[in-house]
Amino acid sequence: xxxxxxxxxxxxxxxxxxxxxxxxxxxxxxxxxxxxxxxSFTRRYWIKRLVYFEEHTTAANAIxxxxxxxxxxxxxxxxxxxxxxxxxxxxxxxxxxxxx
Length: 100
What we know:
The chain has 100 residues and is of the alpha+beta class. 43% of the residues lie in helices and 21% in strands.
């Protein structure tokens, strides 16, 4: 079985507060954010909408990409999200359903 790693961006609302994270289990980690079991920053600002993610084959690549995105200007992050997800739709249901 090939291990996967994910860099993800959560948002409170379109163009609202955002959070960039990395995980090896995207469904579980986003669920934790949605349930308020994750980072206090995401709880404080109600950041629960998965608006962007990318898959990586190594933890090192995913962590490096997360660091890169965290250094980016906010406008660049917004453009990245809007290129892949113009409506800032919550993608969680797309990844959480096993039959998708």
